[in-house]
């Protein structure tokens, strides 16, 4: 019964592919504006949105229970889980898959992508597609998590409105490079099963302390660290580069985001494997990429040239 439920849920998630063609490019933007005006919470919620919302709510609920089930070993596990899954998101989903900032052998690429699954931010195809659309339509009506629609929408609410994203994206199919690989197709079909098995093992191993202090605390920190890049890094912070968007560099987030909060740097040089462009700008993801490069395992590592920097720099 449990396996059947997971299988049905996973099928629903697959059918909700945010990249499925729904409208041609001409009509998609006007349709997005129409949908934006409707009530968010009073709308009819498809099951996939309910599942996504319940996942986020349950993880937050488990985090709230952590003080009543405190165990240092479990909390330490949660912090390690946060570091591993967040670094996997930034290293794999973001810089390797979404932007192709560097190349690594498949025996390294696939394990990092698999680890990122447990950050509960979707499968690689889903995540990468949304992020590519974000850069394609940054801060416009078609941006999947546009800051123009408010802090909370860009922070988290956009995740629970898959129909809106479909209309915003138009008819583009922007992850064909991943769809050609069996591993990413496999993860898309089976992601719910992997997550369910992980949380089951977590409970069997450590009981409620590991579910709450471990999965709950680690999951909530990971969620909001990533969400803040979409929201806070388009509102607060400094700008060093002349980009056509509202991206900002937020220094105090850099350690927690593994270097992702140098967001103005990133939008200025999207394909750069390094986002902390100054020596003092902490970028843990770049340190890992650089390590693999020194070991001869990361190749075609992309960095902005001095000419590109001079062209984009804001003269003060």
Could you provide a short overview of the structure?
By secondary structure, the chain is an all-alpha fold. The chain has helices at 2-15, 25-36, 47-64, 72-98, 106-117, 124-136, 151-155, 162-169, 176-179, 182-230, 263-268, 284-294, 306-312. InterPro entries: Acyl-CoA_DS, FA_desaturase_dom.
Account of the protein in words:
This protein has 316 residues and is mainly alpha-helical. It has one domain (2-228). It is built from 13 helices and no strands. The protein has helices spanning 2-15, 25-36, 47-64, 72-98, 106-117, 124-136, 151-155, 162-169, 176-179, 182-230, 263-268, 284-294, 306-312. Helix 3 crosses helix 10. The protein is globular and about 55 Å long. Residues 1-9 and 11-38 have low confidence and may be disordered. It is a multi-pass membrane protein. It is found in: Membrane. InterPro entries: Acyl-CoA_DS, FA_desaturase_dom. This is Fatty acid desaturase domain.
List key phrases describing it.
316 residues, 59% helix, oxidoreductase, disordered N terminus, mainly alpha, transmembrane
């Amino acid at each position: 019964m449990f396996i059947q439920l997971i299988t049905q849920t996973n099928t629903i998630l697959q059918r909700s592919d945010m990249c499925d063609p729904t409208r041609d490019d001409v009509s998609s933007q006007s349709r997005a504006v129409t949908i934006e005006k409707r009530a968010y919470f009073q709308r009819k919620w498809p099951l996939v949105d309910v599942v996504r919302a319940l996942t986020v709510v349950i993880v937050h609920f488990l985090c709230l229970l952590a003080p009543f089930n405190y165990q240092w070993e479990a909390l330490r596990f949660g912090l390690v889980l946060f570091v591993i899954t967040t670094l996997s998101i930034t290293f794999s989903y973001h810089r390797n898959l979404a932007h192709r900032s560097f190349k690594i052998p498949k025996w390294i690429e696939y394990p990092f992508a698999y680890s990122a699954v447990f950050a509960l931010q979707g499968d690689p195809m889903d995540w990468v597609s949304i992020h590519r659309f974000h850069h394609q339509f940054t801060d416009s009506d078609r941006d999947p998590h546009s800051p123009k629609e408010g802090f909370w929408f860009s922070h988290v609410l956009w995740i629970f409105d898959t129909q809106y994203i479909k209309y915003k994206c138009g008819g583009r199919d922007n992850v064909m490079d991943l769809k050609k690989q069996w591993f990413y197709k496999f993860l898309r079909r089976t992601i719910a099963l992997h997550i369910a098995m992980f949380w089951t093992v977590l409970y069997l191993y450590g009981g409620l302390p590991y579910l709450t202090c471990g999965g709950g605390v680690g999951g909530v920190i990971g969620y909001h660290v990533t969400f803040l890049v979409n929201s806070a890094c388009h509102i607060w912070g400094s700008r060093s580069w002349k980009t056509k968007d509202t991206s900002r560099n937020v220094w105090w987030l850099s350690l927690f985001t593994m270097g992702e909060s140098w967001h103005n740097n990133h939008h200025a040089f999207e394909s750069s494997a390094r986002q902390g462009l100054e020596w003092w700008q902490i970028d843990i993801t770049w340190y890992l990429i650089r390590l693999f490069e020194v070991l001869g395992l990361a190749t075609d590592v992309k960095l902005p040239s001095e000419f590109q920097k001079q062209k984009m720099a804001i003269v003060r």
